[in-house]
Amino acid sequence: MEDWVSRANALISNGLKESDQLKNSEWTFEEEKHNAKIYTRPFFNNPVHAGKGETEFAHSAEEMFNFFISMPLETRWGKGNLVNPIADDGPASAEIVAEEGSLKLIFIVLQMKWPVTNREFIYIQDYRTRGNSYVIFEKSLEVPEVPITEGCVRATLNLSTLYIEPISDTRCKVTYLVNLDPCGDILDAMKEKIQLGWSTLIPAILHQHVD
């Protein structure tokens, strides 16, 4: 895995440009759920739409950033979240495979809701500060040295970006953009359903643990 850092930094540079482009594009409102407004829009050439969740918190942007970046992986992926739309009580396993400064390489296995086969992801996470705002970026990275877990399908996190922006000294806005491909033998309609559920997960987790 000697070159994972350089490959990760290249993905982050391009991914943040994509995220900023998406964030400033037009979105279609779908529903309000778990204290968040949920939107969708086409995701470049991907047949499955991107999802967006928007919500606000009575905390500063810095407080929300510090909470998210220090959150245990099990919590970030929905363990103990009563409204988890994706998996049966979060990940079966989650670990940081490697680190370089704030850059992390993470591996998780999700226990999906029946009848979907368990999914695993290997992805990078890093963050950037922009004045008083924060951007946390995640994206799948191919790492052949990490074998696929028996009984799992390796899914692809095309984009997962969390924007935390101040509204005032004691209030902030959180915008979560996500596009994933669960891979495997799943119809596009089911992928769209999973995508919508994924859009609600981060806002729901944050409200459960911060409010």
From TrEMBL:
GO terms for cellular component: cytoplasm. It comes from the Eukaryota. Pfam families: START. Residues 1-211 form the START domain. One of its GO terms (molecular function) is lipid binding. CDD domains: START. This is START domain-containing protein.
